[in-house]
Design brief:
Radius of gyration of chain B: 32 Å
Oligomer: heterodimer
Largest sheet of chain A: 8 strands, mixed
Largest interface: A-B, 32 and 27 residues
Strand order of the largest sheet of chain B: 2-3-5-6-7
Shape of chain B: flat
Structural class of chain B: alpha+beta
Number of helices of chain A: 16
Distance between the termini of chain B: 51 Å
Distance between the termini of chain A: 51 Å
CATH class of the largest domain in chain B: Alpha Beta
Shape of chain A: globular
Number of helices of chain B: 14
Structural class of chain A: alpha/beta
Helix content of chain B: 25-40%
Helix content of chain A: 55-70%
Number of strands of chain B: 23
Number of domains of chain B: 4
Strand content of chain B: 25-35%
Radius of gyration of chain A: 23 Å
Strand content of chain A: 5-15%
Order of helices and strands of chain A: HHHHEHEHEHEEHEHEHHEHHHHH
CATH architecture of the largest domain in chain B: 2-Layer Sandwich
Number of strands of chain A: 8
Chain lengths: 439, 471
Amino acid sequence: MDFIAAEIDYFFSYISEVGTGKLIRIFWFFVIFEFARLFVIDFLALIFIYVKRKLTKKKRKEARRLLFLYNPLISIIVPGKNEGKNIYKLVSSLKEQTYRNFELIIVDDGSDDNTEQICKSLKRNGMIDVFIRNEVRGGKASGANTALRVAKGDYIVHLDADSSLDRDAIEQIILPFYEDDRVGAVGGNIMVRNYNDSLATILQSFEYNDAIGIGRMVASYLGVYRIISGAFGAFRTDVLQKVHGWDIGPGLDGDITVKFRKLGYKIVFEDRAVCQTSVPNNFKKLTKQRLRWDKSLIRFRLRKHKDVFIPNENFSILNFLSFLENIFFTIGLNLKWYFYIIDMLVNFPGIVGMIIVMNFFLYSCSNALKLMVFNFFRERRNSPIYIYFPFIPLMVIYHGYYLRIVRSIAYLKELFFKSSYKDAWNPEKTSSKAKQIGI
Amino acid sequence: MREVVDSDILRQGSFEFIRIHEQSTYTLELFMAYDSIIIDSGNRDFVEKLVRAVRTHNQPDVYLKPIFLLKSSKVEDPLIGNLIDGVIFSINQLEIIADYVRQILLRINDFVFAKSISLEAEVISRIIYLMVSRDKNELFAYLYLNSGLGYVYPEASIYFTPRDEHKLLNVMKTAEIEGLFTSEFNDRIYLCTNCETGILSYREVCPKCSSANSKAEDLVHHFSCAYVGPISDFQNAIDDELNCPKCNKFLNHIGVDYDKPALLHTCNKCGHKYQDYHVKAKCITCYHDNDVENLIPRTISNYYLTKKGRNIAYHGFISTSKDFNEIPGTVKFDVFKTMLEYEVERLKQNDATSNIAYLKISNAGELYSRIGIDRQKTLVTEMIKILRKNLRSSDFIAFYNASTLILSLNEIPTKIANNVLDDVVKLTATLLKKNFRNIEIEIDHHAQPLNTELSHEIQLQNLIKKFDQDA
């Protein structure tokens, strides 16, 4: 602590000597990218969202009236393997929904536990409408496509089996379709149910509240929202059928969103449609999950959908910007961060210690500010804000170091070794085919 | 049509056979005058109708009449085959069957025909008369399409219409409980929940609308693009190749390009898609569509006549013990056995004498037949009233069968117990004389002390053996 206090003292005496220009030169990474993008722009966007919501309150009310007037059938599809233990909780939360006209379709993707027995029992008791048991595992995409093939609803809501919903979640996630008929898909707001389980879960809960939740609200407002989480997302059935459903994962959530965007449909995030889910409860599992997510960015954005960058008759400036923003703030900033480290080591070798401590301090302040300010814009919270305060400094390590390193490893593995095709998340028979045809 | 003429009356030794053709006009009562019936017809329906009519007639002289079929081939129908007494291929074979007819008639001569007070007892006694007269011990169930159960007991099912045949199973259960038959498992059947018949049509139906109109297809999963759909999505009208509707690739090799993870049914009525169909059983009789899990399971047994059952033919079978279960002042036989067990245990702790006894109407068959069904129960009820007046409340009584009462006379010397029974017999006889002129009642009785060294079961068996011997 004495060391940190000494470094801060040193910092203040240093800035009084060097002036603002030099400071920006030293902390350019934080000032330009992190603070500007992740606080200033987000803050401004949230104000606009807030104002827009106030102004369009009537439109929302009318959308709700239309939804209940037309009363469309919603097909809730839940593909999964060995998820029997979670199904009852999910079914119970569905029973409480304010919107009642839905069918529940469960696809058991080759489970080797008692999932089949549990689901059949629930079906017998009328709690599941359609249950399809695939004897052999085909992967998440094939499970979802099986459900899509039998679905009769006008909208498809894709859920993960370990999710549970707020009472009005189905209603809230469908409303955007009635507010704007150009909307093709809506992403739900994922919150962490097990935030109290471990350090890993509380840091993820912090991340879902802030970077993911707020980030998606802003991205949606700016028209560059790019991923509908598989845990809770709604799609127009006709569009899903037009794109023939999901393609092979991992990363199928982002992929399906791009396919919708390419057809010109708007993709929006609905923060009022809340779904709670369990996140990995230790860093080993979390690392595995994030490696998979990050690899899919290379595989889908840079390889499969690289045509988004090519100006042809299907070119869309919003899709282009969405991809660019995504790639810049993930791959670009990741590379720039290494560039920043090298810059500091080469140009300011004598004050590296002070720079590290100060960056830590600045990021902590920024996180605290965001936590408090953005909290005003959240309509629904699943945990009290104060529980996150002790973890603010740790979030700097989590975001600034841990996630960056995981991301770097994922990019390298995917760029040079195409390792996503070896991920056991997908069955080998489908991954090998995907690799063979280069998707 | 022609009347029965002299040429239809056939004689063999001292026996007269009546020959019936399809064209014959006759009444069933006519058969009483002959020793046996010869049915001269190859028409199965005619034969069955006639055999059923004879065997279900209310007069023993008709329903026990030996019947032979004049036919050029063997009878394969189990119902007819078991209800007739044989097949002759020519009239010249009468000599061969004459001896068999004699045996049947001799046995029937020894029978006592008592009127039964319940349908159950009536059916049981008629089955037994028919079996004993033919010296048969087995009552087997045969698979039979025209039966309401799918199984027929030829000698027993004829008393019921196909819709009521399920009642026969209860009758046979009662007969088994009475100790008249033993049984062995033959098959298990399931009956309609609405009408309890067993001819059902099982169908795989849509779990949503119960329609059997559905199409089953394999689901195909194309590995390359993750498309999943029924195989018809991949088929085309031109050739046998499978093309993916999503990526337009050929599916060449199962396991390499695609697999079939599931079978999917599509209901052609409501469009519901499902894997697990429901099985429903439509009743051919009443058209009720049953959920198979609610069907009524019943066991079909083969029955074997016991010695006690055989004796029924010679003593008559007036009622089942069930018919007397509700007569005040008595307890059920099972309860009696339990109480007797307690009494034996109690005597082990006390220096006292208790007795078991029986009272048996030895001419019950004749008696009950004469006083008529309605008054049988009245007589028995009155007899119990007399007994109860003369016994103490600690004594208990149960029906062993319609003509025999078992008693436990507690804490009195055996001699006094016998005296009490004497008094009861006299009082009953007096009562009967008052109410029924020209009718005598014969009552046997016997009381014996309970032995604490023997189990109540053995003592009861010894008592039953005693009155069976006396009979």
